[in-house]
Write a structure and sequence with these properties.
This protein is of the alpha+beta class. It has a single domain, classed as SH3 type barrels. The chain has three helices and six strands, in the order H-E-E-H-E-E-E-H-E. It has a six-stranded antiparallel beta sheet.
Length: 92
């Protein structure tokens, strides 16, 4: 039921960690894994908010960790577990 509601509300969403390099996308939302999720809160404070353009720039050499993510002119190194919280829609 919850997954179906997400699809209805957000259309086709994928996780930021699954995005192909240099594919433009738009952030839909950041998922709170815990009730008071400090990582999700920090991601939102850093600018990972609904409507922001985002792209995956590079993957690390070992296990594709960390990921280099770009929002605007700012680049962030995120662990895959952190990027897994960010839901995006590929830009058309």
């Amino acid at each position: 039921m919850y997954i179906m509601r997400m699809i209805i509300d957000h259309g086709f969403c994928m996780r930021l960690c699954d995005l192909m390099p240099f594919t433009p996308a738009v952030i839909e939302y950041v998922e709170d894994v815990l009730e008071q999720d400090p990582i999700a809160k920090r991601l939102r404070e850093l600018g990972f908010v609904h409507g922001e353009a985002v792209s995956l720039v590079a993957r690390g050499p070992v296990g594709a960790d960390p990921l280099m993510i770009q929002i605007g002119f700012t680049r962030f190194a995120l662990r895959r577990a952190e990027a897994h919280r960010v839901h995006v829609n590929p830009a058309s």
